[in-house]
Hints:
Blueprint: E1 3-7, H1 13-21, E2 29-36, E3 40-41, E4 44-45, E5 48-53, H2 55-72, E6 75-83, E7 85-88, E8 92-100, H3 103-119, E9 123-129, E10 132-135, H4 140-147
Helix pairs in contact: 2-3, 3-4
Amino acid sequence: MAHIKIQEEPFDQAAEEARLRSGRSDIGAIVTFKGIVRGSEAGGEIAAITLEHYPGMTARELERIAAEAEARWPLKGVAIIHRIGRLAAGDDIVLVITASQSRHAAFEAASFLMDWLKTSAPFWKSEGTREGTRWVEARASDDDAAARWKK
């Protein structure tokens, strides 16, 4: 079963990986992705972003997509930690960890999860810039990346 957390406070990447590996000798590969708030986008400076969500719905959706990854690949563990609230440029925003006997499965599952998080996760993001605050729209390039996972 996947380890899912949605939180305002920073996460500890090493502790999360250690938790996933604890007492296990059947893991041959761990892939870790950590997303960081960018300080600029399309030439404009970003001071911070704010992420909002519906708590019950978001957790259920993250659990659902993690279960789908576990059904598609022979995974030994999955962790998704996503931060919410106001995050400054340079802050960690998301951590995805996949573990498997095979590096291929771990890489594919991590890519699948990140593509889904980027395009379909029920989070709403606004960016704070010098010009004010604006809601972040979906990007065609993210949708294109996620399209490869359609059944």
